[in-house]
Amino acid sequence: MATEPSRPFVLVHGGRHGGWCWQPVARRLRARGHEVFTPTLTGLGERAHLLSREIGLGTHIEDIVATFEYEDIRDAVLVGHSYGGTVITGALERIGDRVRGHVLLDGHMPRTGESVFDLIGPERAKAMTALAEEQGEGWYIPTADAARYGVTDPAAAAWVNSRMTAQPLKTYQDPVGPTYRAWQHPGMFIECVPSSLEPHLLERARARSEADARFHHQLLNTAHDAMVTDPEAVTALLLDALDLG
């Protein structure tokens, strides 16, 4: 039985993943009595049949806004992993009043007008664009091996690899809209050790936590796909996020 007030969690996956990746964490949160939503962004995961070159960052932001509106979600903890951090940052401009606190799990934290490519830098952006040209018909990023995300356990890696899907290049190229509410909202950044994020992005999160008492920085000694490699620790930190706000 839950020892904390029951509140909804909305868990947003990262690039080339889907809502499936949150299964180990979602089970634990539900066992504590919380309602959990794990939306899959358009064109990914079980929605891969919708993949198209027209899908951009705005599409994925709309996915999250619609989830809140159609499921009538309020007073939630909103979580974004990796690329999902950009998605929830953009969505908060419209659903901030429905969110108790937001959590970036090794996630991108853009400012207004920044794209994922802006955040990861020109070298990585150039490499991803070249990958799309070579293996993705010029408009999508092909799947990646689970090892890239730090998943080394054979069974877990096989599970991840069997579910990874391609992602439109446009979602990484599109600039996010206004992010003012996200930057003023109570939140938490969970830095995985080792992290897959660029050092300057980790420093951005640390600096924000030092300047904003309502924004907390936490370290987690596990790989970038922490919801797979250490779901127990991720669950514990997400439960701590109930005190945000």
From TrEMBL:
Keywords: Hydrolase. Residues 9-236 form the AB hydrolase-1 domain. The keyword Hydrolase applies. One of its GO terms (molecular function) is hydrolase activity. The keyword Hydrolase applies. Coiled coil: none annotated. It comes from the Bacteria. This is Alpha/beta hydrolase. It comes from Streptomyces phaeochromogenes.
